[in-house]
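Posting this for the archive.
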Amino acid sequence: MSQPLTDSHHRVHRSLRISIVDKCDLRCTYCMPEDQHFLKREELMTREEIATIAKLFVERYGITKIRLTGGEPLVRPDAVDIVRDMAQLGVSLGLTTNAMTLDKHLDGLIAAGLKSINISLDTFDAQRFKTITRRDGFDKVHANILLALARGLRVKVNMVVMRGVNDDELLRFVELTRDHDVHVRFIEFMPFAGNGWGRERVYTFSEMLGHIGSVHSFEKLNDDPHSTAKAYRVGDWPGTFAVISTVTEPFCGSCDRLRLTAEGKMRNCLFARTETDLLSALRRGEDIATLIEANVLAKHAMLGGLPPFKPESQEEVLHDLSERPMVSIGG
């Protein structure tokens, strides 16, 4: 019988994010520094190691949700096989992608058991897309979003909102939910190594709702108790939109997520400044259960142990939240 992973603040952890590669075919300015160094192949978890660790989390600790991330998971040649392995664990399974090559893998992903997908898209302007990602590709990503919807996948579109960069496009993204059963997620710009974060670039949760509400009437939806997103719907539109307010209104008290990096290091928080090396211990033939449990018990109450963001203060140290760029942590 599984034993739930409960931290010292009495949160039960049921969700695991597994990064399967640290490389990406886009070089988004907010998640990948220009001088990013990638892992060697032998440093990455193998397909078999991913399956072994995931199975332990599910069978021993009652993990019920797994999301595969990167980098860009679809640049990994065995990505579809890993999806199939995870689907066989009987969990709620998702995958996060930039959708640049989704059309090439979609048949295989669906056959492997994938039903939910998160697609990262920060702009509907082709030239702005090129500036943010450092390459062309908007038309391909947009077409693949529509293709995923047509194939019956549950699709979330994740937009990182940056003041002065793309905050003028919020309404365009909301209006996507009028035409499609798609779930848009607006994410406050978060500080990670090398992404040029500054408090002046944070377009806040309250500002987003104010801007959207100036044009559209919307209703609050009931959120899952452990959801990181506050969800809304405009009228009878088929889709929804939500805000992930990590910076200005953290949801740490109800967060049930744990993370595993592509080289097998466990993080108990997106903003954790310490990690536990599960992969090295596994390769030495050690029981990694005690490492997992110690990592969870060490989880801070909020934001990796740092003080919260205060709009009126100049003293917060959020810029020190992570020594890793987002691409090496996993989305």
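The chain has a mean pLDDT of 89. The two ends are 30 Å apart (CA to CA).
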